[in-house]
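Below is a complete specimen:
___
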Amino acid sequence: MSTTEAPPSTGTNGNGTSGYRWVGTRPVRHDGLDKVAGKARYAADLNLPGMLYGHILRSPHPHARIVSIDTSAAEAMPGVKAVVTGADFPEAPPKGATRNLMCTVIARDKVLYSGHAVAAVAASTRREAKAAAEAIEVTYELLPHVLNISDAMADDAPVLHDKLFTRGVEPRPTEPSNIAARTVYERGDVEQGFAEADIVIEREFSTQAVHQGYIEPHACVVDCDQEGKAVIWASSQGHFKVRSATAEVLGWDTSRIKVIPAEIGGGFGGKTTIYIEPVAALLSTKAGRPVKIVMSREDVFRATGPAPGAIIKMKVGARNDGTITTAKAWLAYENGAFQGMAAMLGCMCVVSAYTLDHLYVEGFDVVLNRPVNVAYRAPSAPAAAFAMDSVVDEIAERVGMDPLDLRIQNCPSQGDPTPYGPKWPMIGLRECLEAIRDSDHYQSELPEGQGRGVASGFWFNIGEASSATVNLNENGTATVITGSPDIGGSRASMALMAAEELGLDVHLIQPVVGDTEVVGFTDVTEGSRATFATGMAVVEACRDLKEQLRKRAAKTWDCDMEEVEWVDGSAVHGPGEQEPLTLAAITGNAKRTGGPLGATASLNARGAGPAFSVQVADVSVDQETGRVTVERYTTAQDAGTAIHPSYVEGQMQGGVVQGIGWALNEEYIYSDDGNLENPGFLDYRIPVASDLPMIETCIVEVPNPSHPYGVRGVGEVGIVPPLPVMANAIADATGVRISDLPLSPPRVLAALTAADS
């Protein structure tokens, strides 16, 4: 099978793909015992001889000019070995991504949000480091600040960056503003589309910034030697990114840095960038000793990137038969203190679950005095789906159609144009819609007093660069080395694909995440790319190895290689004149036939299959308190091929849970003076097990033809539908539609009270 061939669709049960021995099975994860036994080593667990502890001083102000920093008192305190400020770092360029990265790590001339790093101390104990950091005297000149999109976009808004001119506007603006970029996608004639419509619904929606809520805070240990080389142990979604970004901030060559990936206690997109590694590296260089920095939970909330809040205006037209004729969307996303591309992603996603002839989508990236926004599982897509799928539900109600039937009628198919340009490849949206329509949940009678909501969600998935090395050991076992940190069970997926290719028992394969000097360059584990792209590299390396094994067998038998086939883990002589040679027999004799057996593959993966999810939920709403209880929830998602169905189900369920939290409870709450008021899990309310029913899963398998095993990434799209699902279910239960998130008890109660008045 070539790398462009994919297996046929196998239905929606996720119980394994017909014809495979290992792909689609559910072995215990290779790293499971170490994790449940507490033996897995995270960055905060590492202690080195002579190690110091770092503590970062952060701004109490959302926007201020740094007039002076006096570190003399801190430097004289007991146990202090090094102090750094922004002045110790290379000068940042006047604008661009490098400046944004450098200024995120530590402020120089201005602080741009409460929690912005200003200085750091390394000392013998944590207590000494914290006390010394607090002794640093910083003089600030306070500046006006903006905390929300509307204020930041106002004509008289205080401008954060005097060299930020809006991209995507012609002619180029001559005055700086807080609007970093404008994105537009259009097709057809929206006015014609509205004229063709029998009904037009226009609504405005808002969502709030939310944090990824990973259990493990950011942590690293950095040891810089006297030759200027650094070893970094980091908890990250991409250690090659840690290497390149740290080098960029410090002005070092990447050859000076080795990054060893620690285990990662959750990331969900929030650990795809750096915050503390360059600070620890500079402290270690100054002190001549290893330095550990572990963020407090408060610092994680105040100083690391949440998902952005958004304001979205939707205008959608449809005919009485349920055909959506046109959509017009205006989207504005928070970027935090530095420019990003949240709005562009939202524009690409907002109507992607629907096919329509006329559309106009306009998006704006807006900077404001909050920490820079970063990815959180399908970045920007949940807010976009909240807006579009809420309006679609209203259309279904107005035309008297079942909401799933209306979505099926308007869903795109292979060959239809996407809203952002290309044509859709093979996708499984229709199959997901039909799976939910036919599910026991959707077919069941809705209990009295409850409401039911449905919604669709889309995410691109990406490919990018990956490398893998597969080594065969003399006893017939194999080691699979990749550069993708395992944040969702990818070790097991790599082992399963290698087992399938080589014909080995999966338990004879040891998957390893190698450091930056062990394995070839690999992009960050993000965009649902690890099993797709890194798995593709593993498959390619294994196929190289099978050719080598055939060659060794031919040498052993003294025959032409064309006479040798590789079947179920053994070399088979086509003419049948020789007894089959197992992989262990060949590797055991490898010294006599040419030496060790190993193969490496590096690639830039193309053809990541788009992902879709369709979900349904039943809720009840307490009319006296506004509290929403999720009574039942089912999610269907196209996995392409479920390499390890248990982990696919886990990703689906995890995305749903986080989406429910986003919809019902979670939000950043700032005081008027720009300080975060809920920087901890006591006041920032994420769902726990007692808040939720068992999330029922339905794995749909419409194989991606660009992957040898049909893989589509599954880690992200699951978080997209829950926002509109919850809104639609609450509207069904109460008759009241709420367009601002979160749908917390006070907000729901206020809406119910207003509706009764």
